[in-house]
Amino acid sequence: MGCVSAFGRPGGTDLITRRGLVALGLVPFVPRLARAGGQIEEPLADSVRTALAQAVADAAPPRAAFETIDGRIAFLAWLGAMSDRLKRHTPDHRQRIEFLETLWYESTRAGLEPALVLGLVQVESGFRKFVVSSAGARGYMQVMPFWARLIGDGDPSKLFHMQTNLRFGCVILRHYLNVERGDLYFALGRYNGSRGRNEYPAAVFAARKRWGYSDKSVG
Predict the structure, then answer these.
(1) How far lies 5's CA from each of 23, 47, 54, 60, 154, in Å?
(2) Burial class (CB in 10 A: 0-12, 13-18, 19+), 132
(3) pLDDT tens digit string along 123-137?
(4) Where are the alpha helices (DSSP H) in the chain?
(5) Distance (Å, rounded) from C-alpha 12 to C-alpha 18?
(6) Is the pTM of this model over 0.90?
(7) Is the dihedral of CA 165, 167, 173, 176 positive or negative?
(8) How far is CA 157 from each of CA 9, 18, 142, 145, rounded to the nearest angstrom?
(9) Hey, where are the domains in the chain?
(10) pLDDT digit string (tens) for 69-82?
C-alpha cells in the first residue's frame, strides 16, 4: 500500500474508445497502476490471525442500522453531503451511494472515523476500484495480496470487490491501530509500509479534512 497523492486521468477519445472496446470484449481489461510503497508482511500470533480472519469473514450485508429516527436522519444527511463531494471522482449516482453506504458500514464496524477512511481511500487509490500499485496492492484501500492468504480464503482477485476491499482495509487499519496502541500516525505508517516517515500520515490527515462532517452522530 502506499501514498498516491496525485492522479492523472486519461481523457479524450482514446479513453472513451478503449472503454468501449473493453465493454465489447475486444480489448482485455488491465487494472491501472498506482504508485505505492510495499506494506511489510509481519508475523501474526495465532489468536490475532484468527480474530482478523473472523472479522473479514463476517458476511453481514453493508446496511446501516439505527436505534433512533434522528440517527437515521443524520446518516442520510451525511450521505447526501458526501455524495456531493464524491461526484467529481464517481459521477454515477448509484455507484456513489453504494460505495458510501458500504464505506460507512465497514469503517464504523471497525471503530474508525468514516472521514479518515475516505481520506485514506483518496490518498491510496483516488477512488479507483481496480487500481494496482507497483507493489501489487489492490483496489480502493490498496490491500496487499498477502492478506488474502493470511486472513482470507487465499484468492487475491476478490480484493477488487468493493465490500471485500473496504472490509479488509478497515480491519487491517484497526489491527495496526491496536498494535500501535491507538497512535494513528504510526498506524497509518504501518498501513503504507513507511512507518516513521511523515509524508503518508500527513497526506491522509490533510485528505481527511475534506471529508469531515459536523454532525458527530454519524462519524
Answers:
(1) 29, 35, 32, 33, 30
(2) buried
(3) 999 999 999 998 899
(4) 13-23, 46-57, 69-86, 93-109, 114-125, 146-151, 162-179, 184-192, 199-210
(5) 10
(6) no
(7) negative
(8) 24, 22, 13, 8
(9) 62-212
(10) 999 999 999 999 99
Cα–Cα dist 55/184, whole Å: 20
Question: DSSP for 117-172?
Answer: HHHHHHHHHTT-TT-EETT--BTTTTB-THHHHHHS-S-GGGGGSHHHHHHHHHHH
Residue type, 60: A
Reduced to 3 states (helix: H, G, I; strand: E, B; else coil), residue 107 is: helix
Domain 62-212 -> CATH class: mainly alpha
**For residue 68, what is its C-alpha cell?**
433512533
Q: Residue 183 corresponds to which cell in the numbers above?
A: 497512535
